[in-house]
């Protein structure tokens, strides 16, 4: 079973490449959110659906245990501002 990390599944891929791919992926997700909002869905609904889809895929790739361990790190990251758009004071 693989462990869930920020590393690319391909060990030959450079960290910069993996970061670039994640930035591209976030662009696609942002565009999907914009489309959903344009179609009348609220951001809360879209965010919950995105989280469900993301965790479903992570469980499918890494399994329940590794995904749960990853999820346990989220509160500290959220409180530290890792997902905030504005700078913290």
Present the secondary structure layout.
Elements: H1 15-38, H2 43-62, H3 64-72, H4 74-79
Helix pairs in contact: 1-2, 2-3
Order of helices and strands: HHHH
Estimate the mean pLDDT confidence: 88
Oligomer: single chain
Rg of Cα set: 15 Å
Number of strands: 0
Kindly name the structural category: mainly alpha
How would you describe the overall organization of this protein?
- The protein is mainly alpha-helical.
- It has one domain.
- It contains four helices and no strands.
- It has helices spanning 15-38, 43-62, 64-72, 74-79.
- Helix 1 packs antiparallel against helix 2.
- The longest helix has 24 residues, at 15-38.
- The protein is globular and about 35 Å long.
- The N and C termini lie far apart (40 Å).
Q: What are the salient characteristics of this protein?
A:
single chain; 89 residues; mainly alpha; 0% strand
